[in-house]
């Protein structure tokens, strides 16, 4: 059970637990109940995870309490922006509980239940955050052992957080016995099925299954029974991701198939190793997330990821030379596309333009790019921006470079600024622009605030040039 309010709050049967004032019930699982509670000592809301009282008579009370203590011990030693924080562990006469961070958002499972793949940029950004959390946990001697979408939360600022360390293995812990099969079958590694000792490479196998599902909309191992899932994990090679989703670049296939190797030695040995391989497969754009000291106010970037082609790759600013294409013609196409799919738009626009050898043809360019927009609605919006075959999308894409600052900000100006920012941050740019607009006295001030949200120095400089700073 995670800390997100995945079900409508319900009236709790109790009103107080230790020092915590119970406000509502967030959900219930096989092990216990999660409440929304208030800590009066430091005046903050928490998620309170408890052991179910009706299980006490089954003889499992001490085992369940030990598991709860294990979660508190595992997560409590991990202070990381991508891991749900644990604040406290306590026991009353008939209840054991842990107080943890209350995450306002949605479980990744809910986003994947539709069976539709996520946008590539979004999936890779969230996966980068998952790798950051796992790399940190592994460095501190903690193996999660139950990485799955239900244990991954995405908050309102698009930050992914890893929850539920209830079956985690902590170095020097005596809670978990060798030979015990622990995990969730569809996301378990081969060594978990056989009860062998596990390390961080098992978490990375499970994480690769999650990435596969985010990119394709389906799981690589999906039998009708636990026995069938186990047979597939132990003996079958899953379909290459691009066979399930033809929009995916082949370079990602190689990374995921290695990450799903049955032998731990054949997989990536560390989270950082897997991250570097994804960097290479996406033309070297780092898959990292941005945090600041004011963590609760941070808006995460939809990171700049670029797709590899089968005929070559470009890194950094090494993009196709498009001397015959006026920059003023490509810029609005890039910003409109970036609003739908994120920073990868910059490379895709230039690659598509390079395929039109005779003369600049905006309608042909839009036709080549439209299939890269995964949603029907987003694709229609992108095509409609240039539906008349002219450069109509340019007026909607933003103000011209070097325009004078406005004394007051209108919706069109904020929208235009967000579209320009989307080239570097992706769809999250709209949230950033909306947040910063009330704090900016002029259009120039807004552009300056948006530039500060771009962590990459070269991208920030390019944005500043684009808006005339």
UniProtKB/TrEMBL annotation:
Domain Protein kinase: 20-288
Major enzyme class: transferase
Keyword Disulfide bond among record annotations: no
The protein's name in its UniProt record: non-specific serine/threonine protein kinase
Gene3D superfamilies (alphabetical): Phosphorylase Kinase, domain 1, Transferase(Phosphotransferase) domain 1
Record-level Gene Ontology MF annotations: ATP binding; protein serine/threonine kinase activity
PANTHER family associated with the record: MITOGEN-ACTIVATED PROTEIN KINASE KINASE KINASE 20-RELATED (PTHR43289), SERINE_THREONINE-PROTEIN KINASE NEKL-3 (PTHR43289:SF6)
A Pfam family that the UniProt record links to this protein: Pkinase
Positions annotated to bind ATP: 49
UniProt KW keywords: ATP-binding, Kinase, Nucleotide-binding, Serine/threonine-protein kinase, Transferase
InterPro entries, alphabetized: DUF8082, Kinase-like_dom_sf, Prot_kinase_dom, Protein_kinase_ATP_BS, Ser/Thr_kinase_AS
Annotated EC: 2.7.11.1
């Amino acid at each position: 059970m995670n800390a997100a309010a995945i079900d409508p709050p319900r009236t709790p049967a109790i009103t107080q637990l230790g020092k915590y004032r119970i406000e509502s019930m967030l959900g219930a699982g096989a092990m216990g109940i999660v409440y929304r509670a208030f800590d009066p000592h430091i005046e903050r809301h928490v998620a309170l995870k408890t052991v179910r009282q009706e299980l006490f008579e089954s003889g499992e009370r001490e085992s369940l309490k030990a598991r709860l203590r294990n979660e508190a011990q595992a997560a409590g030693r991990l202070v990381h922006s991508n891991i749900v924080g644990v604040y406290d562990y306590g026991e009353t006469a008939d209840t054991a509980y842990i107080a943890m961070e209350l995450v306002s958002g949605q479980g990744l499972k809910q986003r994947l239940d539709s069976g539709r793949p996520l946008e590539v940029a979004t999936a890779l950004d969230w996966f980068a955050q998952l790798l950051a959390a796992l790399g940190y946990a592994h460095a501190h001697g903690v193996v999660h052992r139950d990485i799955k979408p239900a244990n991954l939360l995405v908050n309102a600022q698009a930050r992914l957080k890893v929850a539920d360390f209830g079956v985690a293995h902590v170095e020097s812990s005596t809670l978990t016995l060798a030979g015990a099969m622990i995990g969730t079958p569809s996301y378990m590694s081969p060594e978990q099925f056989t009860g062998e000792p596990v390390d961080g490479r098992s978490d990375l196998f499970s994480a690769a299954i999650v990435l596969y599902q985010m990119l394709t909309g389906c799981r690589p191992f999906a039998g009708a029974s636990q026995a069938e899932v186990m047979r597939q994990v132990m003996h079958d090679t899953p379909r290459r991701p691009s066979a399930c989703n033809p929009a995916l670049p082949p370079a990602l296939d190689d990374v995921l198939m290695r990450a799903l190797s049955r032998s731990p030695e054949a997989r990536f040995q560390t989270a950082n190793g897997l991250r570097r391989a994804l960097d290479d497969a996406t033309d070297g754009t780092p898959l990292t997330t941005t945090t600041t000291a004011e963590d609760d106010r941070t808006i995460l970037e939809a990171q700049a990821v670029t797709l590899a082609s089968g005929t070559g790759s470009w890194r950094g600013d090494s993009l196709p030379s498009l001397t015959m294409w006026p920059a003023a013609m490509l810029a609005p196409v890039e910003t409109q596309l970036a609003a739908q799919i994120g920073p990868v738009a910059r490379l895709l626009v230039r690659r598509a333009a390079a395929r039109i050898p005779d003369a600049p043809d905006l309608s042909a360019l839009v036709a080549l790019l439209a299939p890269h927009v995964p949603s029907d609605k987003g694709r229609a919006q992108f095509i409609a921006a240039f539906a008349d075959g002219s450069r109509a999308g340019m007026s909607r894409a933003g103000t011209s470079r070097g325009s004078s600052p406005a004394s007051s900000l209108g919706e069109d100006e904020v929208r235009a600024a967000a579209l320009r920012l989307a080239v570097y941050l992706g769809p999250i740019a709209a949230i950033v622009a909306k947040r910063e607009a009330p704090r900016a006295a002029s259009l120039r001030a807004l552009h300056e605030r948006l530039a500060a949200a771009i962590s990459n120095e070269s991208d920030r400089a390019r944005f500043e040039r684009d808006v005339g700073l």
